Each structure stands twice: as C-alpha cells, then as structure tokens.
C-alpha cells in the first residue's frame, strides 16, 4: 500500500501505519459501545424488529452486535471489503447465529436491492473511503422509506491533522468528511438529517438521517 499523499493534496505524510491497531482494539470497541452507539440511538431511536445493514464491519463485529443487542434489530447484515476481516467478524459474532450475516462487499457498490433495509450503520467508514459520498448514496438507495442512516465519524479536522496522519493511513485525496459535508451528502442522496451532534471541537460527529 502506498501511503504517500497525492501531489498537491495538502495531506500530511504517514510514517508508521498503526490504523489496524486502533480499529481492532478493545478500547475502540468500548468507545463504540459506551460512547457512540448511545448518541446515535438518542438521535435516531431504536430499530426494533428491523432488518439492518452495517457497512465496514471491521474484525470485532461490534457494530453488528450493537445493532441486534442495543438497537433491537431482528437481523443484521454486514458488508466488509477485506476477506480476513470478513472471516474474523463471522467468528466474533458466531454466538448470534442466524440473526447476523457477514459478506464481502464494497460499500460504494452494494449488491442489496433498493429499499431492503430499515437502517444502515456506518461507524467511522466514510473517512476511509475515497468516494465516501458514494457510500452515503448507496446507504440511501438500500433504505426503505422511513429508514434511517446512522453515522459517526472522525472528521477532516482530526483525520488530516499531522499527529494522527503520521501514525494512521487514510486515503490521500484530501477530501475527508466534515460535519457539514456529511449532512449535505445525505441531503443530496435524498435523506433528511433528523439529528446531528458534534464533539471535540468538530473532530467527531454523529448523525442520523431519514429517507422520505
């Protein structure tokens, strides 16, 4: 993987890529479970009895487990780009049985039909995608009318800061999400933002948007 930023992108270089260390850590899972998920549920409510999708499951399956055990989904599908992560997530959520299914796939080109899901969850996925607006558009496409898109993100202010960039690789296009641009991307995809909360001087944002 080439960690060098694109010429003229204004993105600081990455010297040591420790992204995986944080993403797969127990501390990251705890933050997701105790900090982020409660914010998203407060902004957008439960999905009791619904069918939901998580894009970018990672390896611990925390988001899928939260979808079922915290948000009340009857079934949660997961889409993950990398094969080793798919296998690790399947093992991590094996105890949930048929309530969870994890498949390899690209969040910018989902195979699900239009209007399949009651909710789509994206935990820190957008800033890892070059075409992150396509992820939002695909989430909107597969939502049923009234379905909700739940997103939490580290924003450009933090992701492109020199200290983080030095130790964590992210796409070098220089177009990272901000609180404002995530909202505008949702609106462009036909979603209505029903709640958004920014923290840490705009370095983190949680958002829920609903499909009409």
Spell out the blueprint of helices and strands.
Layout lengths: L18 H5 L2 H19 L6 E5 L6 H8 L5 E6 L2 H10 L7 E5 L12 E7 L8 H11 E12 L1 H4 L2 H6 L11 H10 L2 E9 L4 E8 L1
Parallel strand pairs: 1-2, 1-4, 2-3, 4-5
Antiparallel strand pairs: 5-7, 6-7
Helix pairs in contact: 5-8
Features:
single chain, about 210 residues, alpha/beta, seven-stranded mixed sheet, 8 helices, globular, disordered N terminus
Task: Note down, in words, how this protein is organized.
Strand 4 (117-123), helix 5 (132-142) and strand 5 (143-154) form a beta-alpha-beta unit. 34% of the residues lie in helices and 25% in strands. The N and C termini lie far apart (40 Å). With 212 residues, the protein is of the alpha/beta class. The chain has helices spanning 19-23, 26-44, 62-69, 83-92, 132-142, 156-159, 162-167, 179-188; strands at 51-55, 75-80, 100-104, 117-123, 143-154, 191-199, 204-211. It is globular, with a radius of gyration of 16 Å. Helix 5 crosses helix 8. The protein has a 7-stranded mixed beta sheet with strand order 3-2-1-4-5-7-6, sandwiched between helices.
């Amino acid at each position: 993987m080439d960690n060098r930023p694109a010429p003229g992108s204004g993105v600081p270089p990455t010297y040591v890529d420790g992204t995986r260390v944080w993403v797969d850590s127990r501390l990251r899972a705890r933050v997701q479970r105790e900090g982020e998920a409660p914010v998203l549920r407060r902004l957008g409510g439960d999905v009791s009895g619904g069918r939901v999708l998580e894009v970018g499951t990672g390896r611990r399956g925390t988001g899928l487990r939260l979808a079922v055990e915290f948000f009340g989904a009857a079934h949660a599908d997961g889409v993950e780009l990398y094969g080793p992560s798919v296998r690790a997530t399947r093992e991590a959520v094996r105890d949930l049985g048929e309530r969870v299914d994890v498949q390899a796939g690209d969040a910018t080109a989902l195979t699900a039909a239009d209007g399949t899901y009651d909710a789509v969850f994206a935990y820190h996925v957008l800033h890892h995608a070059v075409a992150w607006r396509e992820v939002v558009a695909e989430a909107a496409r597969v939502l049923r009318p009234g379905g909700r898109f739940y997103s939490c993100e580290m924003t450009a202010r933090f992701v492109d800061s020199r200290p983080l960039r030095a130790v964590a690789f992210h796409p070098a296009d220089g177009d990272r999400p901000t609180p404002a641009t995530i909202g505008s991307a949702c609106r462009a995809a036909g979603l209505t933002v029903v709640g958004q909360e920014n923290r840490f001087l705009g370095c983190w944002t949680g958002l829920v948007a609903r499909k009409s």
